[in-house]
Each structure stands twice: as structure tokens, then as C-alpha cells.
Amino acid sequence: QVQVVESGGGLVQAGESLRLSCKVSGRILHILTMNWHRQAPGKQRELVATISSDDRTNYTEPVKGRFSITRAEAKNTVYLQMNSLEPGDTAVYYCSADIVEYIGTSTNWGPGTQEPASS
Question: What is the b/e burial string over 30-68, where b = at least 16 CB atoms within 10 angstroms of the residue's CB?
Fold first, then answer.
């Protein structure tokens, strides 16, 4: 019923920028927070950034000053602007939404960003 979809991932060189998008849809009473996570091969998944319904934000220390999470006018959509990318930022990025439904609260995950098809 609830769907979370990421988009915007790709291969970039160090120092370049990339913007990820996340859209959540479904029968939702309220979105508490929307979050970006990442997981590099062989490493634990980590929370990168989060934004609450009142626009409070939080970031993991390695991305502070470089990444920015924002919410679109349509509050079911958030972006992760990633600037000055470093090799350590290489990972699959996942979006999650903490929501309130009529039956309770839940956390819903997207499938993760995918690299562009290569030849």
C-alpha cells in the first residue's frame, strides 16, 4: 500500500554533485520523517540525513556541510543534494519514510538507488 521510490543515483567523479529524489505514496495519515541511508559493500547501513515534518534536519558527521536534505512543496517528496562527493560516499542510497497510518506507525523503505546501465 505504501510505496517509497528513489531516483537520481549515478556514477560521478570526486568533487562532483548529485541530487537524489524520494517520493512516498499510499494511504498515509501523516509523514513523521523522511530519511536517507546508505550502504557501502561490506559495511553496515548508516543513516545519512533525516528531515521531520516541521523541517528539522539532521546529518551524519561525514556529510555535514556537503549534503542537504530538503522537502518539496509536495511534502511526500524529499531531495538529497550531495555536493563535493568523495570516494567514501560511494554506496547504495536508500530512502525511508516514518509514517502514521490509521492502524499505527510504520517505517517504509525504498529499493535503493541504482547506477545507470553501462555497456
Answer: ebebbbbbbeeeeeeeeebbbbeeeeeeebeeebeeebb
